[in-house]
Amino acid sequence: MEQSLNKRMIVAVKFGFSDKTYDYFSDIPVEVGQKVYVETSRGEAKVEIVEIKDGSERAEKAVLRIVEPETAPSSGEPA
What we know:
Number of strands: 5
Distance between the termini: 56 Å
Radius of gyration: 16 Å
Largest sheet: 5 strands, antiparallel
Shape: elongated
Strand order of the largest sheet: 2-1-4-3-5
């Protein structure tokens, strides 16, 4: 039973410029719709998780981290 607890999650991600999905491992808890950074051959890229999968023969790299939500800078003036 301990092996199932250590099983890596597989996620399908979509890059903004394509409808094609790519599989990645995730050692951090993520959900569909979240934006994350992944490693690519050209460096890090921000992608969207579109599916959580049971397995994959294609996943070779891992999710690096979750994209932190952007906060609007405060102008210091009341609205």
